[in-house]
Amino acid sequence: MAGALSIEYEDIPASLRWAEEPDATDKRARSKVEKFQNNVNKGTFRTWRLLAIKSLHAEALKGIGGSARLFPKIGATEYPIAIFPSAANESLLSCTESRLSIDARPLYPTPDQLRLNKHALKRADPSLSGSQEEYLSDLLLANKIRRPNQPGYALSSLNLNGEGCVTSFNAKVCHYLDNVRSCHHIEYILYKAFEEGIRSSDTKSFFKNMAKPTLLIAKAGESLSVEGAQPLFPLISIQAVVLFRRRGKWRVAYVKRSRNVAVAAGAYQFVPAGGFETIGRFDLAKIEGRERDRIEIGFNTEDALLREFLEELFGDPSMVAGAGTADIDNLPGLALCRDLMAKKILEIRSLGVVFDLVRLRPEFSYLIVLRDEKPGNLTYNTRPLNDGAAVKVGFGYTNLEEANELEAMHLSRLRERVTAELWHESSAG
């Protein structure tokens, strides 16, 4: 990784220093969003949605073959996802063969700005359709999005070999809200169409005055890209299945997502999982020398995976996106992981990409194996945080933004649990 990077809290623009839990919540917006979240988990909608997605992407999906899998079935549930295995372990652990495009993006309003001026969203992004503006403002006012202006990396295209396996990828920068506006919003459009009684095969009626998003398969499966009349920003996510030993038995770490999230509220999910985000929080409306350095240094999937691992399973607050971290190469948690990897105690395998065909969200997926017989003894002290104090953290301490507590199950129960319960589509993949 090129060079060390120092980011302090004072570097973060004042407009981006949001409280993790804003004081005021719009009760009408929260009620509306939670009704939507409850209804999209119902079997009738999920069955209709699956048929709608098959119809929507029918032409593009004909070009997928080889080792790739479409709409896998676990038990009685068929999932609206496509799975592209890694061509090699380095395919998604190294970004050396991948490309990043850096362009300035407009700064979206914060929830507080939106409360003061209900037209703030439309002014920031005049291209918003009525349903996009409605969906975004409801999520923001209901406090379902904690960091709307957090920068991250969105997929431009997956590069595939002739067998449908991922060799590398191309990406661009975005804010989290760019992703919600252009990709998460698709499920809301489908939900509204379902409520109106539109047939699942009538895809033109889903989007009405908007051009539908398009999956493109180029040159007999050599790449997959996502396009639309408006720019699309499918934020790349990082997820892993973590295997560890406790009392001599292999176990899998997982959580139940809280109700206070934008997507898959109340579903089970493997951890770690989170967006492929930049190191630190800053304004993408103007990208100059230092901001460009931060974006380029943060474009490292292995580091992003380890940051999520340390944040969610070790409880390290310095790994939270936007936290004031210093000298990222030498943070104690990352140093511990590198040492464990060198000793073969910690092993990471690139599995591939689980592509959510509803929200067009690519989940870069990994297997993390922790072979220490007493993982609870793996502890360290963080660097001093913004308040000047260091914190002792370790495996099992957890720091979960989107769930209440970390849980573990015997590996032998994995298929039974995924078959019987509501799981996030990406985890099921």
General description of the model:
It is a single chain. The chain has 429 residues and is α+β, with helices and mostly antiparallel strands. It folds into two domains: 16-71 and 98-227, no CATH class; 234-428, Nucleoside Triphosphate Pyrophosphohydrolase (Alpha-Beta Complex), CATH 3.90.79.10. The chain is built from 13 helices and 18 strands. It has helices spanning 27-40, 43-56, 58-61, 111-116, 120-124, 130-141, 176-195, 203-207, 289-298, 301-313, 332-342, 414-420, 425-428; strands spanning 69-70, 73-74, 77-78, 81-85, 99-101, 151-160, 166-175, 214-218, 223-227, 237-246, 249-256, 268-270, 273-275, 346-356, 361-370, 379-381, 392-394, 407-410. The strands form four sheets. Strands 1, 4, 10, 11, 12, 13, 14, 15 and 18 form a nine-stranded mixed beta sheet that branches. Strands 5-7-6-9-8 form a five-stranded mixed beta sheet. A two-stranded antiparallel ribbon has the order 2-3. Helix 1 packs across helix 6 (130-141) and helix 6 crosses helix 7. It is globular. It starts with 26 loop residues before the first helix and ends with a helix. The model is unreliable at 1-23 (pLDDT under 50).
